[in-house]
Write a structure and sequence with these properties.
This protein folds into three domains: about 40 residues, no CATH class; about 160 residues, P-loop containing nucleotide triphosphate hydrolases (Rossmann fold, 3-Layer(aba) Sandwich), CATH 3.40.50.300; about 140 residues, no CATH class. Helices cover about 25% and strands about 25% of the residues. The strands form three sheets. The chain has a six-stranded mixed β-sheet with strand order 3-2-1-4-6-5, sandwiched between helices. Strands 7-10-14-13-16 form a five-stranded antiparallel β-sheet, with no helix packed on it. A hairpin with a 5-residue loop joins strand 5 and strand 6. The longest helix has 14 residues. The radius of gyration is 22 Å and the shape is globular. The structure holds guanosine-5'-diphosphate (GDP).
Length: about 375
């Protein structure tokens, strides 16, 4: 007999009991009840907490299309530590006339010495270059609760009485941000109330705002080019910085190589002795060697001296692919998507950056 699909009474998603990390999950025991509610709605209902669910690329397109059809404020969350990797490149083509408020999250990871106003300007410039014209740009730390009041005030200002859709790449901190907003709003009833009522739109959860409009949490969008998809859970902990990043400065001679664990590699080919400033998680070990020894070292030490990836994951870990760059501008970042970046202060350097096949590497104007 074919099983009949069961739907969540909260958001309408089809219930599945196999994968807790995928949309529509409910534990098997929930199926015995008359009215089934998915784990995501359950959490929101009972704990006032949203939970991120990843999307397939097809669903992503559907969501983007929907954003063009609504009349709302779009709040786009990016991870400032992985700005390009968490950017969602197509968004501006889909949002139509809807205003976009750009929020850079994880501000707490930036060195304290970096001026926040300068960072916001940098984000504005990058947004413009990437084709987006946000109504405003803010910098917050959802985890630490920095500037959440400002963000809430900005949302309330720019939404102009309309619904709000919060979008972001998985891991950008969208759930943490929304949960912060919900928590903060409990004490300040005039902005957003927490009287929960699940949305009826499939896979979007609506949190009612005071005036009958809603703040919609959209599922997180997976960017396949991020390092996060090539490492295991424990390894992800190593490469994800937990607190303010302390830049590591390496004075390199030509023909020297830096390994970032076994995940990435930077060869300094030409341009005279100069500093390379590395902004990566301080839990990730950087190993310096001679360029002529680098290949052999990698072949011999991957999974040991050079890790992550750990020994157990070598079979599924992709080979590193080499990209050569000639640095022509002052203050350029070589970005290893999801891992961090290396700043080169002066032009005239030739480098080669290596990343696992599928991960993006790029140059950009220096963030710091
Ligand atoms: P989502 O997938 O976009 O919903 O992201 P989550 O809210 O689940 O957060 C992803 C990861 O980023 C988690 O490990 C969070 O602890 C972390 N995170 C979220 N916000 C911040 C922040 O402001 N600062 C830092 N350092 N980490 C954060």
């Amino acid at each position: 007999m074919e099983k009949q699909a069961v739907h969540c009474i909260g958001c309408g998603v089809e219930i599945q009991t196999e994968d807790p990390d995928v949309l529509g999950y409910a534990p098997k025991s929930a199926l015995e009840k008359e009215q089934v509610i998915c784990q995501r709605c359950f959490r929101l209902k009972h704990y006032n907490e949203v939970q991120d669910v990843p999307l397939t690329d097809d669903d992503f397109l559907k969501i983007l299309n929907r954003l063009g059809q609504v009349d709302a404020l779009i709040v786009k969350i990016v991870d400032i530590f992985d700005f390009n990797g968490s950017w969602l490149p197509g968004l501006h083509r889909f949002v139509g006339k809807n205003p976009v408020l750009l929020i850079g999250n994880k501000e707490d990871l930036l060195p304290k010495s970096v001026k926040r106003a300068k960072m916001v300007n940098w984000m504005k410039q990058q947004a413009k270059e990437l084709g987006l014209q946000p109504v405003d740009v803010l910098l917050v730390s959802a985890a630490k609760g920095h500037s959440i009041d400002e963000a809430m005030a900005a949302i309330d200002h720019y939404r102009n009485g309309k619904d709000v859709y919060v979008v972001g790449c998985t891991n950008a901190g969208k759930s943490t941000f929304i949960n912060r907003v919900i928590k903060q709003a409990t004490g300040e009833k005039d902005v957003i109330t927490t009287s929960y009522f699940p949305g009826t739109t499939l896979d979007m959860i609506g949190i009612p705002l005071d005036d009958g409009t809603s703040l919609f949490d959209t599922p997180g969008i997976i960017n396949h080019h991020q390092m996060a998809h090539f490492v295991g859970k424990n390894e992800l902990k190593v490469i994800t910085p937990k607190k303010e990043i302390k830049p590591m400065v390496y004075q390199l001679n030509e023909k020297q190589t830096l390994f970032f664990g076994g995940l990435s590699r930077l060869d300094y080919i030409k341009g005279g002795r100069r500093p390379f400033v590395c902004y990566v998680s301080n839990a990730l070990k950087i190993h310096r060697t001679k360029l002529e020894n680098a290949d052999a070292l990698y072949a011999r030490q991957l999974g040991d001296l050079l890790q992550p990836p750990g020994k157990g994951r070598l079979a599924e870990f992709p080979e590193l692919v080499r990209y050569e760059f000639s640095i022509k501008e002052r203050k350029t970042d070589i970005v290893f998507s999801g891992l961090g970046w290396v700043t080169v202060n002066e032009p005239g350097a030739v480098v080669a950056a290596y990343v696992p096949k599928g991960v993006r590497v790029m140059l950009r104007r220096s963030l710091i």
